[in-house]
């Protein structure tokens, strides 16, 4: 900070520009500053871009995914990923294509298996006609981002198919929507709870605070996944997928608040007796208003950081619960549900492409962590001002 | 009287995110056996890092200038070039503590909080005096007694946080002296203490220095303290020594405008109604070091066209004293 | 120190009490009660027609018609006074029998994991802090990020896959076939040790990733402390200096989070157990949940949480001993 006052006599042209830049810097709002600092955090920017792409793909899953999440392709069961190519033995083309498949019997096991048919080429097309779906749940479209022409009579499976012939790529896109949205809803629920609980403890203090602190302590010592499991196990078996979905968000949100509530409490406690808060109280403002208008804005940036870094826990918990069969249930698709099909070493050996959803889990969790770190650095008012 | 430490042309630079900065540039001073050199200057003028350089205590980002010479004469008469000692060498370890001891500004932070005072003292004693544990403990208790800590036999087993601030600094002095250094570097040892304790600690240090015949470098930004404790003084401004000489001489007859400013800034009991007279302006940041004489931006007597362009040479108007100021060169006087 | 210990002990007991209330509530959540499920399980498919009155009879027999508060005291009283956790319906025996020596297997896994965690993370974290900014430090940071992002079951699968390729097929589980049901012997213990390491590696993974960062951060702070410079200025040899001053203090946050690590390990246990085929409490807990055998599930949840609370207590004591400032309340 002090540097600005030491601008010594000779203001050359470059000096003047720098001076202006500095003026802009010192008059920028808190959020502009945070954004400027965040922008310089390259890893966090990359992570944010990745997450953005994931979120978009999830939101527009009906359009991005060539097929529905439960559409079966009986021609191509447990099939390997089909990578579009530009060249084969018959020469090259500008438009990527895949070879056709034909069914033959395995000479050893006598099972029917699909083998490539080099005679046929199917060209990969953008914006092709396909299944009729409802974009965002209400806009009917029959076009998809990418796929094969319906006339070809064949489907393309970029990431292969599972044991029922369902397209792993399409399923992963749909699962992205489910898993990310569960994360968002779960975080929102725990945020609201944290605000209420932490707010009450920090604002009221005294006895209320003591009781809440005790309760928080208890929730923090119980191992979280077994706790979630207990609640998830109680979901009636006959519930619909939607009911289970919302129950899951509720369960995840219900116990995600302790860390954030603690943060809010300690921040509130520390500014409870600041003059401006007392002034507001004397002026007769209601507690909710005092907290929201006068106390929270001071540490909103920290709350946001905490929210961002609590995403990974939500995502990993959902994945783990669904993986062991206590979370979402088929026919819902989430990353965890998809990974349920990849529970054994046999799967690694024979159908490794079923693990592709795991890459999404790792990337999403990493991205949230890196963004959280970037935001934390950016929100730190004591970070280098240069 | 003989020189025990002679520093010539010491320059220190740091690699930082904003590029290389050189907060200490061409510093020279000497310390005589049994005498105290006072090092004065405002915050950030480079007093601490100059002395840390002597014991290779600077962080890895620091580099010494190629022309820097630091020659130390050990207790056994051997001349050691402090800049050339290898890291981790036995010789360096002997210098640290055994030859040159250091006391820091924060007595609390200088002790590790998880070991008793005695533990940390005995470590130094066993290292440098080759005593066994039991003897080392006795020695430590003796040392604590010497610095005026009552009930030393009990204090030796206490943790640093169980002592008061003044006590802690006394214990730190005991700890440093127990290794038997010939040269003591005290980096603002009294700044963190309240005034009455300050005077006591200052007295203690002066007495101990006389008794043990040590050389001492006493760092402070208070010329008043210098008058009490130092034989010689060097005034530092922005990494250079602008004036040096016998303490009495410099205080009675300051040559450099900066020294004059510092002396004027000392509040005096006789003139309580006057306003305080601080040296005008702020110390420039090390990244924006002014060219020419570093003090010209705040100097009331600066000679336009000279001071901001050329660095002044060191001249000696009064025998035994030296000053770096254009006002004291024939060239500068004619220009003024 | 005595006062400090007693205070912490009282705190532990209160927390355990509250935890037991919470676990009891969780046991009560699933629709229907023990009698319903017992009758359904016992008689479904047998052709016997179970009437509401039969179920009512079972309910009365077991005291399930009592108000909730009474049942809670009955339940917790049984556990505390007689070590009686009630009946396990899926196995038609007492919960205590079902759990049996799985408690010791679980404890074995826990301690192997903790040992591994600290043996790796403390030295590595210290090294990373001393070599801050080097390639090794950078690599470790990347590892830590990955370690926290990788779902544990996935890691378990991958490890199992490679273990199978390199060490032969019989690496999963806790015992080889010939020892699974054999009585305890030295050979059996050795066999278990040979299987244990895989689970320990998988379970320790994220704890290591986390603790390396903790140690590295504290160690970096400590390295910059004046007390370290002061000790260096006294000529303390560098290695001894590192160990005695900054490293000694960098261990404190690790000690204070032992309970947290145990929590993390127990949290991962049921999931990892599925993949690795471990036959301990985590796996049993999952099974019990899937069967809605809430007496067994509740007992295990309670035991695991008590273990965590107890470890918290131990870590408090250890910390009080390690850091003289704490027990003096400075
Ligand atoms: N590790 C470092 N990296 C970069 N610059 C440094 C470092 N240590 C010191 N400096 C620079 O060296 C300058 C002098 O520091 P030093 O601690 O010697 O000042 P000082 O004269 O002792 O001041 P004070 O009276 O406040 O102790 C500082 O202004 C700082 O800019
Ligand atoms: Mg200093």
TrEMBL record, chain A:
Top-rank taxon, per record: Bacteria
Location, primary (coarse class): membrane
Subcellular location: Cell membrane
Cross-referenced InterPro entries: MetI-like, MetI-like_sf, OppC_N
Bilayer topology: Multi-pass membrane protein
Positions of the ABC transmembrane type-1 domain: 176-372
Signal peptide (UniProt feature, chain positions): none
Family: Belongs to the binding-protein-dependent transport system permease family.
Name under which the protein is recorded: ABC transporter permease
Organism: Leisingera daeponensis
From TrEMBL, chain B:
Top-rank taxon, per record: Bacteria
Sequence ranges assigned to domain ABC transporter in this UniProt record: 5-263
PROSITE patterns with a match to the protein in the record: ABC_TRANSPORTER_1, ABC_TRANSPORTER_2
Record SUPFAM superfamilies: P-loop containing nucleoside triphosphate hydrolases
GO-annotated molecular function: ATP binding
InterPro entries per the UniProt record, alphabetical: AAA+_ATPase (IPR003593), ABC_Ni/Peptide_Import (IPR050388), ABC_transporter-like_ATP-bd (IPR003439), ABC_transporter-like_CS (IPR017871), Oligopep_ABC_C (IPR013563), P-loop_NTPase (IPR027417)
Localization (cell): Cell inner membrane
Chain coiled-coil ranges: none
Presence of the UniProt keyword Lipoprotein in the record: no
Gene3D superfamilies: P-loop containing nucleotide triphosphate hydrolases (3.40.50.300)
Keywords: ATP-binding, Cell inner membrane, Cell membrane, Membrane, Nucleotide-binding, Translocase, Transport
Bilayer topology: Peripheral membrane protein
Major localization listed first in the record, in broad terms: membrane
PANTHER family: ATPASE AAA-TYPE CORE DOMAIN-CONTAINING PROTEIN, OLIGOPEPTIDE TRANSPORT ATP-BINDING PROTEIN APPD
Protein family: Belongs to the ABC transporter superfamily.
Record protein name field: ABC transporter ATP-binding protein
